[in-house]
Amino acid sequence: MTKLEFVPNGLAAINDWYGGPPAHIKDHTIVQDMEWYRENTKLFKLPFPLRLAWDLNQQSFNARAHKKIIPALRDALIEIRDYGGYNFLRKYDLEIWGGIKSLRFAKDTKRLSLHAYLAAIDYCPHLGPYKERSRMPYFIVMAFLLRGFITFPQHDGQHFQAARGY
What we know:
Largest sheet: 6 strands, mixed
Strand order of the largest sheet: 4-3-5-6-8-7
Structural class: alpha+beta
Radius of gyration: 15 Å
Shape: globular
Oligomer: single chain
């Protein structure tokens, strides 16, 4: 099992570990630092197709994430796939994701989301929407937790991040 090599705690440690910040604010708009993006992120093949939460007729076969989380993220997704197979996931709508990259502020804050660092994934948003208690299946939660990801089942169960204290 591949675990996260390190899980930073707090903004200073996050910036230090992930080489951030990944963006800056200009005229109240978040602007991606393209040099950071090229140096710290990588496109990788997903172990199974994931339907897009915002358009269930579309699938992703690849994703981009911070290089430091890809091995653990891929391993978690492989475990999820292998639990019951792709047809099982598809039958129960367990192969839907909200993505990784999002240049935005964390909800209700003025700090960058860990999605801006490409160090968080929203998985099965319909089972753990923001401000609702999670209904995420145990095997999915454990696939992420055993690899060092953090989640917030009381209010954002779809969100799995590779940092704490933030």
